[in-house]
Amino acid sequence: MNAALHEKARNVKLAVFDVDGVLSDGRLYFTSDGKEIKAFNILDGLGIKLLQNSGVETAIITGRNSPLVEKRARDLGIAHLVQGREDKLTVLTGMLEELGLTFEQVAYLGDDLPDLAAIRRAGLGMAVANAHDFVKQHADGVTQLKGGRGAAREFCELIMTAQGTLEAAQAAYL
Question: What does the pLDDT look like over 27-72, one tens digit per residue?
Fold first, then answer.
């Protein structure tokens, strides 16, 4: 692991995720009657649960509103969910104030321009492999995996590795 990323990840107390393009593959699916469908990666979900079990809080900040995201957050035990907001840095600032955390204690994983300010301000700001190139240029790091294809799990494991909690989190399944 990159030493600079390792150092930044060591301080993380809150991991924040975008949804479309990060927890999903970024495509929008609609049924013939206009209902939205999203596909989430089970590997990402377990990574988030492992991260929570290691003591790191989790949050979602997304620009779209979706009952599916609310259900996914509830299923994963993500306590902090903010939907329908593209001013993600403003939301993140308020969330940190509420939780008594600093920007150095937050990791943010995003993929596109609405995530950019939060990525740049977070102690650990990362982009998924298929993020917009401009966003990747301004991130501390880029996952090897694509959004909706295991990038969130990779992000979670990077944090747990830096904090020395990955093996203990995985051991619960042995």
Answer: 988 999 998 889 999 999 999 999 999 999 999 999 999 999 999 9
Burial class (CB in 10 A: 0-12, 13-18, 19+), 35: exposed
Backbone angles phi, psi at 36, to 5 degrees: -85, 145
Q: Whole-angstrom Cα distance, residue 133 to residue 130?
A: 8
Question: For residue 46, what are the CA distances in angstroms to 51, 77, 117?
Answer: 8, 11, 27
- What is the per-residue DSSP string for 52-80? HHTT-EEEEE-SS--HHHHHHHHHHT--E
Q: What is the pTM of this model?
A: 0.96
Sign of CA dihedral 32, 38, 41, 42: negative
Number of other residues whose CB lies within 10 A of the CB of residue 75: 11
